[in-house]
Description:
alpha/beta, 13 helices, 7 strands
Amino acid sequence: MAETGHIPVLLPEVMDVLGAGRGGLRVLDATFGGGGHARAFLERGNSVVALDCDPEAAERARDLERAFPGRFSFSAVNFERLDETVEGPFDAVLFDLGLSSFHYDTADRGFSFRHDGPLDMRLDPRAGMTAAEFLETADRRDLIRAVRHYGEEPSWRRVVAAVEAARGTEALRTTSAFAQLVVEALPRRPGPPPRIHPATRVFQGIRIAVNRELEVIETALPKAFAALAPGGRMAVISFHSLEDRIVKRFFRRAAGMPEHARDSAPQQSRKVSAKLLNRRPVTPPESETAMNPRARSAKLRALEKRTD
Length: 308
């Protein structure tokens, strides 16, 4: 898929942990995106049911429908609705929680400050409010949650104050204007320029808030696990700590393990319905991150559903 600008993350590792290389599996690709993982599953003789709420993903899915008739189907819905849309059981389930290259590289989607465009950020541009609308109307508590908690921006007070002061101006309408507002709000630090753009964390936090990303993940994981066949495997690729924390805790709970350091529930109260396939997340090798820098923060976790 490199010719389209899309490179599927951790592809060999995903194929290996799901056992998809041997073919014959029924796979749920809950995050179709650019279609790289789905195509790899299909080329190895598996069948794929794919989901994605982005209408542009539906256009890309038509190529696979033509190339693999009878083995590929696509539904244009958010994966939080997978229980309403697809019917299990599945031998394998994949969630790739990162945005595809198409999102970042398309200016009018408003995800990136590298290209000036309307400040939108919606994964499904047909529903919900844009990022610009969120910044204009959100109350202070929701702004703080987006910038401080979701974006993990240390100087969140400065950014929130700048947003509130900029309401009703052009500063909240486009990606470049908003990025500049964030840069000007942050304290100047001595030394060489930072490795990442100063507005990166804030853009992440606003995007998460606009799309309800964390709530959607928490809703979808148990639904996907319920659709998994006994002995089936689920893999999740996350790209930042908040996503990974949700995945880690869900997987540990399914495996009958303490979810976190403060979880002191007695062992006899825990239900063991799966086993972890990797205690520590799998991360991309240097060869992959050199070719695809966007993969550098990826973490892959996987589990297998018990058969009894």
